[in-house]
Q: What sequence folds into this?
């Protein structure tokens, strides 16, 4: 069944995607601010919050489009895998959300280095940043499938 078949499924997709974008941009911002702190500059909590909100607003369209493609593909693949194995569909979607974002980050890093000679995603240059950013897909996939299960009509 395709993601956009029913309204509850569409609502679950939109909620999952918004959680993904919000967590991704927040993690991205905090990694960058952590590097600024490592250089010896003070970053107060109010600036951390303000920077996260500003980055969410300014990067919503760009990261939203990139993450929507990754999230859509990973949820379609997860639905097929969950149907094939028949157990733990919520966790299949959660792991698939993580894997989809990890694959997208890897392809963007590999493509950026191949074409431009630099890593275009500053926050994912290190392994810790790559893992932290890719883990943003885990709760998004989990919540997406949990909402579908919650609003599933009995057969």
A:
């Amino acid at each position: 069944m395709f993601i956009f078949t029913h309204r509850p499924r569409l609502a679950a997709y939109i909620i999952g995607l918004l959680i993904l974008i919000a967590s991704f941009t927040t993690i991205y911002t905090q990694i960058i601010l952590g590097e600024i702190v490592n250089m010896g500059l003070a970053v107060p909590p109010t600036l951390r919050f303000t920077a996260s909100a500003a980055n969410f607003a300014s990067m919503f369209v760009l990261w939203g489009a990139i993450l929507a493609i990754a999230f859509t593909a990973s949820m379609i693949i997860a639905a097929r895998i969950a149907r094939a194995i028949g157990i733990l569909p919520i966790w299949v979607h959660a792991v698939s959300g993580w894997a989809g974002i990890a694959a997208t980050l890897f392809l963007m890093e590999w493509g950026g280095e191949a074409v431009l000679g630099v890593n275009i995603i500053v926050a994912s240059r290190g392994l810790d940043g790559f893992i932290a950013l890719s883990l943003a897909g885990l709760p998004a996939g989990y919540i997406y499938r949990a909402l579908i299960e919650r609003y599933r009509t009995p057969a």
